[in-house]
Amino acid sequence: MNSPDLFSVNNRCFVGKLRVKGIYQTGKRRMIRDNTEKADELSLKREYDNKYDEFAVAVYDRFGNKIGYLEKGENEETAFYMDGGHECIAVVSDIDKKSATVGIMVDVFCIADKETMKNLNALYEQYLRSQIEL
C-alpha cells in the first residue's frame, strides 16, 4: 500500500499506479479494446457488497461500461478515501490491447486539494497503524 504523493494538479492528488483486473471475466474484451485509450479518464465506484473483496473498487470507461476492478490487495487506500466521501478517478497510463486480458494500468487520483490530502494521508496512516495493532 502506497502513501499518496502530494502531487496535485487541478485538485487531483496522485494516489498510485494500479492494475485493472477482471477484464477477462467481464466478457467485454473487444469493447474495451475498441473504446479505451491511453490518457482516458475512468470512473471509480466502490462495491460494498462485493463478496470477493471488501475493498472492491469497480472501474468504468467513459461510456459508463464496467471494465474491471482495481487490483485486490492494492485498492485499500483508494477505497479508504472513497469511503470517506472523496471522489477518486483513474487515468489510463498504459494499455496492452494485444494481451488476452487487455492489460490496463491506471494512475489513480483523489479529488482533493493539497491540504485535504495531507489530512487524508494522516488518517490513512492512522488506519494502517490500527490494522497492524490488531
Q: Which of globular, elongated, flat, extended, rod-shaped describes the shape?
A: globular
Label the structural class: alpha+beta
The tally of structural domains comes to 1
The biggest beta sheet, please? 6 strands, antiparallel, barrel
Give average pLDDT, whole number: 88
Report the uncertain regions: 1-8
Give, in spatial order, the strands making up the sheet with the most strands. Answer: 2-5-4-3-6-7
Instruction: Give the distance, in angstroms, between the N- and C-terminal Cα atoms.
Output: 18 Å
Order of helices and strands: EEHHEEEHEEH
Please characterize this protein's 3D structure.
The chain has 134 residues and is of the alpha+beta class. The chain has one domain: Alpha-Beta Plaits (2-Layer Sandwich), CATH 3.30.70. It is built from four helices and seven strands. A six-stranded antiparallel barrel has the order 2-5-4-3-6-7. Strand 6 and strand 7 form a beta hairpin. The N terminus is likely disordered.
